[in-house]
Amino acid sequence: MKLIDSFGPNPRMVRMFMAEKGIELPKEELDLMGGQNREKSYTDRNPGGQMPALELDDGTVIAETTTMCQYLEEKHPTPAILGDTPESRAVSSMWVRRVELGITEHMYNGFRYAEGLGLFKDRLYCIPEAADGLKAKAQDGLKWLDGLLEGNDYIAGANVGLADMILYCCMDFAQGVGQPIDAELKNISAWFQRMNSRPSAEASLHSSCAASGMRG
Amino acid sequence: MKLIDSFGPNPRMVRMFMAEKGIELPKEELDLMGGQNREKSYTDRNPGGQMPALELDDGTVIAETTTMCQYLEEKHPTPAILGDTPESRAVSSMWVRRVELGITEHMYNGFRYAEGLGLFKDRLYCIPEAADGLKAKAQDGLKWLDGLLEGNDYIAGANVGLADMILYCCMDFAQGVGQPIDAELKNISAWFQRMNSRPSAEASLHSSCAASGMRG
Questions:
Q1: Is the pTM of this model over 0.90?
Q2: Which of A104, A181, B58, B94 is 20 to 30 A from A134 via CA?
Q3: Averaged over A38-49, what is the pLDDT?
Q4: Touching check for B100 and chain A: CB below 8 Å?
């Protein structure tokens, strides 16, 4: 099995998950900025055309970040990050979906349709007129989560989970491209610093980040 | 365990999954149109405020449709719909995420911000100016999927899967509220009829549908 990897907050999230679990894999590096992930040699393997992905020894390609983490956890059950009972797995999974559908998808699409439009307009169906609204909706979701974080260190329980890594990698990237962290969200801000100080946060940064100044 | 249930395409999707698996559960019915799912007695249990949810005997509430199906599959492993190996579970999960993030979330939000705005404007952060673009983006996603469906009966393999149920319930609802099925998408249209003829499609309709004329 190998990780098909690149710069970007989504590949970083999988690397952060792997760092938290102590998993190392051989990597195939694609040039995301140059669009190598939109070339036929990749989309034949992953028709979604997005990064990252896992390629298994039999050639099966498993894409989609949350799916990849779930697969890695099945193959490497300890330490369990996604839960170790049906109930704790469900709580983890529920928070992942709330964070993605309520916050991070809107942050990412807000970026793709505005600051990222030059890069994405020929890769994805873009909706420039939605960008400001999507960014505002993401902030609305963060405000909701800020209230729920009161008294809690992490989103889905006492320990760091996948929802934390998804949101952290998204916000750390987004704050460099026009979506700063609102200091008035005290619980989110404290949680962000908590995530930022984990060794996996630094260990998961792509080698190109020092040069680009971006966090992905 | 009980199902907290209502009218709507998302609750219907969980009922369709249960029908395919032969699972029956006691139900607590909430008035979605009347906003009972936005009242404190429900949001204290499910802070997402969305329908449906499962309430376990110990009071734990598991929300988010895909999470609920995953939990039900863990408790009732056969017949397996989400896969019976780590690899087949990953393929199922990957397609669920592709369909949700690439198609159905855009269809649902396009509805909420336009035809559904009267109902949703005081419940959710809405982006009316994004509605047309979101609907067009969903069609762009369906066109992409139409090509991939060539020669295949179902989205993620030879058998009906969760991605099929998510997309079917969304499209069946959406076609009644301004997002018709494009007949030029031949593979999608044939797949839709295939889904529509499954006994679970009729069995999962809410009792209020006959009166409302809507499919949810």
A1: yes
A2: B94
A3: 94
A4: yes
